[in-house]
Amino acid sequence: MARIIGGVTTSHVPAIGGAIANGRQQDSYWKPFFDGFIPVHQWLAEARPDVAIVFYNDHGLNFFLDRMPTFAIGAAPEYRNADEGWGIPMVPPFAGHPELSWHIIESLVGEDFDLTTCQEMSVDHAFTLPMALLWPDQKWPVRVVPVCINTVQAPLPSAARCYKLGQAVARAAASWPGDEKIVVLGTGGLSHQLDGERAGFINKDFDLRFMDSMVKDPTWATRFNTHQLVDQTGTQGVELLMWLAARAALGERVRQRHANYHIPISNTASGLMLLEAA
Amino acid sequence: MSRQPPIPGTTIFDGVQARKGYALNKMCYSFNDAANRKAFLADEDGYCARYGLNAEQRAAIAARNVLQLIAAGGNAYYLAKFAGIFGLDMQDIGAQQTGLSKEEFNAKLIAARG
């Protein structure tokens, strides 16, 4: 069986791409953010995962409103970034793991998750930037399985449902006959709101409570409906749904190896956690 | 979600907004392609007409006004691609929507550190 060895949850703010492209990681603005990843690099160098299952949300690159899946999973041999409209630098393509993707699809649909399956799928900054933060040389040492959760158009899947999705992915990994080591990523958040008169909204108290719950009480955030999560975290802060799915995939107990929280990166309270499956 | 209490200064992009804003968002989605961004700049009227924007949407695009664009059904993620044409960053957009200068908006973000 494959093993999920740990998880990394991180913000995916587009401006990170510009900072990487322009080598600004040690500028005073960016240093508190990028330095947060040093312990993650050390952990990855030791743990050497073979596969990354990435829970992320598309922002209008692969999906438009003509067809908006609640849960979509990649089953492609390769995934590429593309122009998202504001000149974000491209990164090298990612090797997929279609056999594992199809195993997860079989397993999840067998558990009554109604997935959209994608044999072609562009991945946007929510996928590419966390990968570049984890592996700055952009020589990806992992094959990837993207899992996209809709946060563009309400109704969004509930926090409880996203948690169950992550648990189901863990069961699928456990029944996969390969011996790969898997790291799960959850990208997005933490609190931020880009749109409306409330633009710039950040809720530090909620974010810290949520990060604490990721270790001690992982289903805590599932008590809120998505409207309440938007109220507490902002229209884009609701991306914490990706964190919940990733957390759920790690099993009941985890060890926190590292955490970082910094305000602001662009308009966002940036968060980072490295959790090991216990 | 319609029975949920409103969140001040916040429009939930739901089915109502998605229907209202479809043409506008579809145009903004097209700006993923550099050739389309160029075509918009070359002939803004023609480009908007091709996507069937209504008068409210056309006026909001002409005004480059984010709150008007949201009221016309625009979604933040697609509008970001429109803003990208003009090289605006999220602090420019935040400042415009909150009626603050960019410096004031940045100060507001930093103040969230508590």
Question: Can you characterise this structure?
Answer:
With 278 residues, chain A is of the alpha/beta class. Chain A has one domain: Protocatechuate 4,5-dioxygenase, Chain B. Helices cover 33% and strands 22% of the residues of chain A. Chain A is built from nine helices and ten strands. Chain A has helices at 15-21, 31-34, 38-47, 98-110, 125-134, 159-174, 204-216, 226-233, 240-249, and strands at 3-10, 51-56, 71-74, 78-79, 94-95, 116-118, 143-149, 181-187, 254-265, 268-277. In chain A, the strands form two sheets. Chain A has an eight-stranded mixed beta sheet, sandwiched between helices. In chain A, strand 9 (254-265) and strand 10 form a beta hairpin. In chain A, helix 4 (98-110) packs across helix 6 (159-174) and helix 6 (159-174) runs parallel beside helix 9. Chain B is mainly alpha-helical and 114 residues long. Chain B has one domain (15-111): Protocatechuate 4,5-dioxygenase, Chain A (Orthogonal Bundle), CATH 1.10.700. Chain B has helices at residues 15-20, 22-30, 34-42, 44-50, 55-63, 66-71, 76-85, 90-98, 102-111. The model of chain B has no long low-confidence stretch (mean pLDDT 96).
End-to-end gap of chain B? 32 Å
Any idea what the CATH superfamily of chain A is called?
Answer: LigB-like
> Mean pLDDT of chain A, rounded to whole units?
97
The largest sheet of chain A is: 8 strands, mixed
* Regions with little confidence, pLDDT below 50 for 5+ residues of chain A: none
- Sheet of most strands of chain B: none
- Coarse morphology of chain B: globular
Structural class, from helix and strand content of chain A? alpha/beta
Overall tally of structural domains of chain A: 1
- Shape summary of chain A: globular
> How many DSSP H or I helices of chain A?
9
Regions of chain B with pLDDT < 50 over 5+ consecutive residues?
Answer: none
Structural class of chain B: mainly alpha
CATH class bucket of chain A:
Alpha Beta
